[in-house]
Protein: Alkyl hydroperoxide reductase AhpD
Amino acid sequence: MTIDALKSQMPDFAKDVKLNLSNISGEEALSEQQKYGLMVACAIATRNKTVKDAFLAEAADKLSAEALTAAKGAATLMGMNNIYYRFVHMASNKEYGTIPAKLRMNFIARPGVDKIDFELWSLAVSAMNGCGMCIDSHENTLRQHGVTAEQVQISIRFAAIIQSAAIALEAAE
Structure:
């Protein structure tokens, strides 16, 4: 299944989702690797098998094995980090922010792709998971490395569109 097949499964009430899905492949402000890595990382983060399978198929011939692994790693590590750091950020007791997290994150240091690409994917997944602390950290790193506000916004738009596809499919069940 690809994005086109996924679009064909969108219920009538999700016409806007279908239209938005039509536009993401043509996005020109991101590299191919950034774009398809975003699709994979965000699709995995939805935890929806249909959406995940569609975007994995769409990206199959567009991402190297290393980039595919890195996109999967971004989704996985942010799944862990976003829970932990969202708790630290939201807890009234600020003592938790002074205690070492003791979470293994070696993959972040050597994801096998350009740091900017991995950071974009991590930012989008962090937005999906609602971790403000992680959003700020990834956005700050991206901006320090010359990524534009438009490129950051596009990555979040991808996350929103892909999440809405998963919600539409689940709502139609």
Notes: The longest helix spans residues 65-90. The mean pLDDT is 95. The chain has one domain: 3-172. The two ends are 19 Å apart (CA to CA).
